[in-house]
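Renewal narrative, Specific Aim 1. Our central claim is that a sequence can be written position by position from structural information alone. The example that follows is taken directly from our test logs and has not been curated for this report. It begins with the structure tokens describing the chain, in the order in which they were read.
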């Protein structure tokens, strides 16, 4: 897939997820074969006021390139300023959020609220595309009505003002992450636009990703929640795209990723902050495994990296050597 002058290969994208797609996790996703990683949402107002916490969300590493940084806001001038700062920070793309349905975002007129005000959305897109030299992309929802008319209209506006690609999560604002994503809307948007359309929603396995591309004609797939627990899904999708059988995630792969993520998190956030975060995040990687409840209990008071790595090692050995040991060469961890 090409977004402006950039080649995204393989055509897989890590979806922006607040509190999840920070630099350490993006590095893991990249190591697992993701074509394009996207930051968690960054407040344009926070950038405008030079908030240290907000600016930190734009930290990056050469190993994760190409990188898109996603911004949100409702004021064209502030959004243009934020986009320029994203460019100056070294991102390859600036992405604008038109899909977040979280109440505190919507009440500011940002996120999916802008799909109810297409004139303001167009003003923002015009301001941002005029402010930067790097490609601009947008992430949208179906809108506020299930027929998807707002998504089709906003996609057309985006193409007209010079946006380089559109990602569509075909659920309504009211649905949040509930119900089913209507892939037919991705098909309709793909047929309307000449710029790339990236499909998002209800991709749980590598097979789902290929099915979405086949059924909708989208040029790439964006994966969020499934990647939180199974970042190797990106490698599996690439296998299928290239006509190979999807590589199973064995215990070696699984625990290597857990250790890699732990080390990245501590290196970036510092030991104390990282360990607080890892108490919750490591849980995602053990979902469905034997003795996962015991592991979650053991990490609930995690204090340092040595303890984290020791608990991961102990859990791994329990799975390999216990009476119900798993075969590291045969077990598949998730779909």
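The sequence written for that structure reads:
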């Amino acid at each position: 897939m090409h977004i402006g002058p950039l080649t995204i290969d393989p055509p897989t994208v890590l979806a922006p997820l607040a509190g999840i797609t920070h630099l350490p996790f993006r590095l893991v996703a990249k190591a697992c074969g993701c074509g394009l990683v996207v930051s968690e949402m960054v407040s344009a107002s926070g950038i405008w006021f030079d908030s240290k916490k907000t600016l930190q969300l734009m930290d990056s590493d050469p190993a994760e390139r190409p990188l898109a940084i996603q911004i949100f806001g409702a004021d064209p001038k502030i959004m243009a300023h934020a986009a320029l700062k994203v460019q100056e920070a070294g991102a390859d793309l600036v992405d604008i959020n038109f899909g977040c349905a979280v109440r505190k975002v919507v009440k500011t007129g940002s996120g999916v609220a802008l799909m109810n005000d297409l004139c303001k959305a167009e003003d923002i897109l015009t301001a941002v595309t005029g402010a930067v030299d790097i490609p601009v992309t947008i992430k949208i929802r179906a809108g506020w009505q299930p027929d998807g008319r707002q998504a089709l209209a906003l996609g057309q506006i985006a193409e007209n003002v010079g946006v380089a690609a559109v990602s569509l999560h075909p659920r309504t604002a009211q649905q949040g992450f509930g119900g089913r994503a209507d892939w037919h809307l991705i098909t309709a948007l793909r047929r309307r636009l000449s710029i790339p359309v990236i499909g998002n929603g209800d991709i749980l396995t590598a097979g789902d990703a290929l099915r979405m591309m086949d059924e909708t004609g989208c040029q790439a797939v964006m994966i969020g929640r499934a990647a939180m627990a199974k970042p190797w899904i990106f490698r599996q999708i690439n296998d299928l795209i290239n006509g190979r059988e999807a590589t199973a995630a064995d215990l070696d792969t699984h625990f290597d990723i857990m250790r890699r993520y732990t080390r990245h998190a501590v290196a970036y956030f510092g030991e104390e902050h990282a360990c607080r975060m890892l108490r919750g995040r490591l849980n995602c990687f053990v979902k469905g495994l034997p003795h996962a409840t015991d592991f979650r209990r053991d990490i609930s008071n995690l204090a340092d990296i040595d303890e984290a790595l020791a608990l991961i090692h102990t859990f791994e050995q329990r799975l390999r050597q216990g009476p119900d040991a798993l075969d590291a060469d045969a077990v598949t961890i998730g779909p």
